[in-house]
Amino acid sequence: MRRYGVYTKSDGFSFFCQNVSMFDMKLSQRIKNTPESPIRKLEPAARSAKARGIKIYHLNIGQPDIKTPNQMVSWLKKTNIHHLAYTESQGNRQLIKSIVKYYHQLGAKDITEDNVIITAGGSEAIQWCFFSICEIGDEVMVFEPFYTNVEGYARMADVKLVPVTCKIENGFHLPSNQVIKSKITKKTKAVYLSNPNNPTGTYYSPSEVKRLYQLCLKNNLYLIVDEVYRDFIYQKVKLSTALNFEKKSQKGRMIIVDSFSKRYSLCGIRVGFMVSRNKELIQNVLKFGQARLAVGDLDQQIAGRMDQVPPDYLKKVKKEYQERREVIYQGLKKIPGAVFTKPEGAFYYVTKLPVGDADKFCEWLLTSFHHNQETVMLAPANGFYLSKGKGKEEVRIAYVIKKSGLRKAMVMLKLAVEKWNRE
Amino acid sequence: MRRYGVYTKSDGFSFFCQNVSMFDMKLSQRIKNTPESPIRKLEPAARSAKARGIKIYHLNIGQPDIKTPNQMVSWLKKTNIHHLAYTESQGNRQLIKSIVKYYHQLGAKDITEDNVIITAGGSEAIQWCFFSICEIGDEVMVFEPFYTNVEGYARMADVKLVPVTCKIENGFHLPSNQVIKSKITKKTKAVYLSNPNNPTGTYYSPSEVKRLYQLCLKNNLYLIVDEVYRDFIYQKVKLSTALNFEKKSQKGRMIIVDSFSKRYSLCGIRVGFMVSRNKELIQNVLKFGQARLAVGDLDQQIAGRMDQVPPDYLKKVKKEYQERREVIYQGLKKIPGAVFTKPEGAFYYVTKLPVGDADKFCEWLLTSFHHNQETVMLAPANGFYLSKGKGKEEVRIAYVIKKSGLRKAMVMLKLAVEKWNRE
What we know:
The structure is a homodimer.
Chain A: H1 13-18, H2 29-33, H3 43-51, E1 55-58, H4 70-73, H5 93-106, E2 116-119, H6 121-133, E3 139-144, H7 149-156, E4 160-165, H8 177-181, E5 188-194, H9 206-218, E6 222-226, E7 254-259, E8 272-276, H10 279-291, H11 297-303, H12 311-333, E9 348-352, H13 358-367, E10 374-377, E11 379-380, E12 394-398, H14 403-422
Parallel strand pairs in A: 1-10, 3-4, 3-5, 5-6, 6-7
Antiparallel strand pairs in A: 2-8, 7-8, 9-12, 11-12
Helix pairs in contact in A: 6-7, 6-10, 12-14
């Protein structure tokens, strides 16, 4: 242990302070290893562009502009708040009951309140998955490009993420069993799948998910399925959950991560949940829940109005996203050299652009490019890969603004790619 | 890796599922080692008492019944919500500015926005402290009885909590430097102090905190000071923060954990914050902040109205608590054999009751005792100790209900102790 300065009683407190101005306050290796969010790292450049009077079309972040259902928020106008109290650590009881009912509608009719715990966003559910099933040094498989915020939690939990690379050419669908199996080691504890996928928009079909689940069964792995984009699939499929592929006798290999953020345009309430047939898991994560006491009361009350939202709401939202997806598609078709497929779900594209280094290109869009005082903000996709060098030419495009704005943004992007390649 | 059942393609998915009903889905050692909240573990017994028609006076949990300032919540009636969006990961900018201003008022005039990060309750700030400054196996010193939710995060972070025992006879004040120093090892990274203290109500004087800070300086340790009960000190002292004991040249040994939950009776909003002169620390924990995206928008907007609350509000609240403290004091004086001092702060007493086993006594209060269909719920204090066998006869009493209720509860407690000792 290093000591700076020698303290004797006669020195006095203030003398001591003056003489110990150098010290060695190290931060932990795990926080140093935690990456910055690839989605948010360009924020300083964006702020400075705005300061220069540039208007930015934000296609970089999964923050939709869709209206929240009135049914969920209008009650706030009528409420008289005396004080706001902790809720149960497991979550607001009414909300849990509504979630159980919802999962019954999805087909998982055996789900009860004991299978559900409310979390501070889907993020907390992901965090708890790692801490509850992995020892230090254990491995979790992800399909890259993957939802990178998972990495922050993996670093916290000292869990190693093992990437299986998916390919842009086949719309980032799952590779063969052989490829997946080759990445399973004795340390592998779980597979994480986001379906529909953030960042790629890929919707993995029931047969793909079943195939993966079988692999998990055979190799004694948990399957974590993040279904926060469940409602946004642009083909004719029945609304469902991966839980329907798990037999009731298989008590607990599957863990569903879910959230209200995207479904009801409620990113600003931090309410997600974990659903699993593994009641022992839910009981145990409740201890983490007790440590953080509770999730926000008002936020849970907002989410708890899910029953009151007419089914029409999500139909309209889905139609809107579907049209936006088409706008991006038409825009990308006009950029020579762009590589992409039309994603089946969520509200993202991962696209290869002929720009050499997408990281630099995305920064340049903010620092050096504008068209009539406007520019586009994208997320460079290399941050969604763990394998070094992968995704270097790719970007994630989020279609979270109105079609008119998307159209302008796509024209601008085409101009920008041309200018970038000229310069 | 164990495998259950052998899958061949011809078996089919459903056959396979039926034949793999036994498997080995282990949970991690760290979640198994995480304790249940000692404050919440009697909840099932309480629920069942209520089901039998028993009215319970809840003195077990730090959930005040005080009215939230109107200024913080009345605006909700006027707001038109289009959608609720993610805020900045560091927190709502207006709220951060208000906190900076507040810390200037507390005396720490050099604090800037870069020294602050908003967290999901004080709890998240504690969690981030462990993950950002400790490696696996490092040690953090706590003064027992201590705020046990800290242990949940220590287990998560694989950090060992090392207890220094404080004594009921001297109001749980800090022991001598010699005692404290004897617990410092090469693995010690930080000292955690809650001031005023939960669960004991002890207010550590400036000279006590300075003494501890000097020890931290000499031993190159972080000092984490949890000041969420800062406003509730029942002696004439100027509102202050431990940050005032840190010279500006000492950039970053001290980390303040703070929260709105107790100050404004806002436990149900999950908004706390971390303040430190160590900007590198704040910059780095922001990466954890990005992983969980943001804190609730509405909750931060509520907290952000702190500027509008008249200073009178906290004066009145403090007076109310002070009177409640007196009710408990008078009640305890009437219980022969009870050991206690009048705590200087927060809204708790830790008291030794002549009941042999306080754990069993507290359970019995809910399962087998009632007086005119009413009973009292207390938190057994052994859960606030790490040292085995300590605090066996102690309970935590939270004075978070009205004086009339407290008076009844204290009469009931006296009767209960008598009955318990007769039976």
